[in-house]
Write a structure and sequence with these properties.
Blueprint lengths: L2 H16 L50 E3 L2 E8 L4 E8 L5 E8 L18 E2 L3 E6 L3 E6 L4 E6 L14 E3 L2 E6 L5 E6 L5 E6 L7
Antiparallel strand pairs: 1-2, 2-3, 3-4, 5-6, 6-7, 7-8, 9-10, 10-11, 11-12
Length: 208
């Protein structure tokens, strides 16, 4: 397993431990940096943990750098299969570590990324009804929580020397994506059907 996979796996195990008693929606971790984008969560996190301490389960994962998103009993992550040029979205049972489903898309070309980066770096977002995933090499893909494809939006590969790392976020009825690179823009999409609601130019901020 790659170093990136071990990092993702460790995050999965830790999240499995401290979200076990979560009951309220605001305690789920639905997107990058959590429900309020602060990186701060409620509850009590473990003080001491590691590969041989307070581990509930382990699940082997492919290469990827996305953070896990959590909703109810589900954990969402992404993977990259370099050999087949496939980008995958995974749903894992939070209590057992079992992979509930894996859905793949195949890109015509894979974006260039930093040597320690990954084409599967963006963190999935979920609203409890659907999960939204962005791959710089492919675009946006939306599944329901059972892995059924609801819609997809093919987007151009961002011309970014570091690779696409912006993660989509859910904001009310919108899914918002910061498309980076030379053709930089902020995109507001109807999260139910994938249609553009608005698009704002960010060409002066190409890589941020």
């Amino acid at each position: 397993m790659t170093r990136a996979s071990w990092i993702t796996l460790l995050a999965t195990v830790v999240l499995s431990s401290f979200t076990g008693s979560a009951q309220k929606v605001e305690e789920w971790w639905p997107q990058f940096r959590g429900p309020n984008s602060s990186g701060l969560g409620g509850g009590r996190s473990p003080v001491h943990f590691g590969p041989g301490q307070k581990v509930r389960w382990k699940t082997a994962l492919g290469s990827g750098l996305s953070s896990p998103s959590v909703w109810g009993r589900r954990i969402f992550l992404t993977e990259f299969d370099r050999t087949n040029k496939q980008l995958a979205t995974l749903c894992i049972d939070r209590r057992t570590g079992k992979v509930l489903w894996r859905r793949t898309v195949t890109a015509e070309a894979i974006e260039k990324v930093h040597e320690i980066g990954s084409p599967a770096a963006s963190t999935p977002a979920t609203d409890g009804e659907r999960v939204y995933v962005y791959f710089g090499s492919y675009g946006l893909v939306c599944y329901d929580l059972d892995g059924n494809l609801k819609w997809e939006r093919r987007l151009p590969i961002p011309e970014n020397p570091y690779g696409a790392v912006a993660s989509p976020i859910v904001a009310g009825d919108l899914l918002v994506l910061n498309h980076q690179g030379r053709d930089a823009y902020l995109l507001g999409i109807d999260r139910r059907n994938g249609r553009t609601v608005w698009k704002t130019d960010r060409s002066l901020f190409q890589y941020g």
